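Students often ask why inverse folding is considered easier than folding. One informal answer: many sequences map to the same fold, so there is more than one right answer. In these notes we will look at a single instance of the problem. The structure comes first.
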């Protein structure tokens, strides 16, 4: 029976008032139970489909390399050339420290090195003089010993007086002593040269050490990256080991925490789907490192997956990774089909007359194509998947798509 229009119903009421007759109860019931008609919704016939089983782990984006720039000596920060967030190139000057003390030390060591080199020249001259003295003493000793040999032969033939022979013997002994003294003098000069050379080695080491100390007053970027932390200002006192800047290489990985009970499902080279909620991006990557040691507090293993180059990536971003472990048959619907009422979730199911009724469901895992329904609906039923928030229990769906 068709519904009675409002104007006709008013006329009937007036007529019944005049004539004393009443409207048939069937017509009045039809007016009262006419459902609200809703249009502009999309529906889906539920069917089982292959559902990929996955192991999901949460993780954090980290840089492969991070450098904490710190001073190696006590000095005042005199210049700071970068700020947090700046990108830097390899070798770029980042921080300058007061270098007056180390520069003075460098000049002192350089002066000591010059003195040592001058001393070597003096010792070389002394060695030349000692050589000449030794040569002269040696020649004098040879002459004296030759004279002694002749006088010894003459003495045997009694051709020379004993007094003259004794004088020749004394001269030979004196010449021998002079030669020995010349040898000792040369040995002393050579020893002095070794000492001077040792002084040069020490002075060169001191100069090198001073130059290294000077280089410590200028902090440069070890690689191209981004400054993620700045913990000092110009005028602050820098001390050894105190961080000044932190630089990260823009080469990131997702470090995911996988439970001990699930780590057996993860292998090197295994693919995983990474979701970065902050950026709204989904990428596919492979496992390139599995830490062999479990965290005793969280009972998880750290699994690392490389991330593609992206200038918007930053350390600390939250991410999840899903590893496929198998598949099963299940019912998957678009997320838009789920209607939340308080802490309950449900869907609108259509009966053969396309009347919508709200039904509570138990939800499973979320997949890129939708969310799995574990219970609450049956295969072959039709549900609303688009526009469900505009529908109420008992609404008539005008057109089923």
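Output (designed amino acids):
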């Amino acid at each position: 029976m068709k519904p009675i229009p409002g104007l006709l119903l008013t006329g009937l009421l007036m007529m019944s008032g005049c004539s004393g007759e009443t409207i048939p109860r069937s017509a009045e019931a039809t007016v009262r139970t006419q459902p609200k008609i809703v249009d502009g919704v999309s529906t889906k016939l539920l069917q089982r489909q292959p559902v990929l089983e996955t192991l999901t782990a949460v993780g954090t984006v980290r840089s492969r390399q991070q450098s904490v720039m710190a001073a190696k000596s006590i000095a005042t920060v005199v210049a700071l050339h970068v700020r947090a967030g700046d990108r830097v190139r390899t070798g770029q000057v980042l921080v300058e420290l007061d270098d007056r003390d180390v520069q003075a030390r460098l000049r002192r060591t350089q002066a000591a090195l010059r003195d040592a080199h001058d001393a070597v020249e003096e010792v070389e001259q002394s060695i030349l003089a000692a050589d000449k003295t030794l040569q002269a003493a040696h020649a004098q000793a040879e002459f004296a010993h030759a004279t002694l040999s002749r006088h010894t032969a003459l003495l045997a033939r009694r051709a020379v007086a004993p007094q003259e022979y004794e004088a020749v013997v004394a001269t030979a002994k004196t010449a021998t002593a002079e030669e020995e003294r010349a040898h000792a003098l040369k040995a002393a000069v050579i020893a002095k040269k070794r000492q001077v050379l040792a002084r040069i080695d020490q002075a060169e080491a001191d100069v090198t050490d001073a130059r290294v100390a000077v280089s410590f007053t200028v902090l440069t970027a070890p690689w191209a990256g981004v400054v993620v932390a700045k913990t000092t200002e110009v005028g602050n006192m820098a001390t050894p080991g105190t961080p000044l800047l932190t630089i990260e290489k823009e080469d990131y990985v997702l470090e995911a925490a996988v439970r001990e009970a699930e780590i057996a499902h993860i292998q090197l080279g295994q693919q995983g789907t990474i979701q970065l909620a902050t950026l709204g991006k989904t990428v596919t990557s492979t496992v390139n490192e599995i830490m062999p040691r479990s965290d005793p507090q969280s009972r998880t293993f750290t699994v690392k997956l490389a991330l593609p180059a992206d200038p918007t990536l930053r350390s600390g971003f939250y991410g999840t990774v899903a590893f496929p472990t198998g598949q099963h048959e299940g019912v998957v619907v678009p997320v838009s089909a789920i209607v939340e009422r308080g802490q309950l979730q449900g869907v609108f199911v259509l009966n053969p007359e396309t009347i919508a009724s709200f039904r509570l469901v138990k939800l499973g895992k979320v997949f890129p194509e939708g969310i799995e329904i574990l219970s609450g609906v049956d295969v072959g039923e039709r549900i609303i998947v688009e526009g469900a928030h505009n529908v109420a229990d008992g609404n008539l769906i005008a057109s089923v798509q």
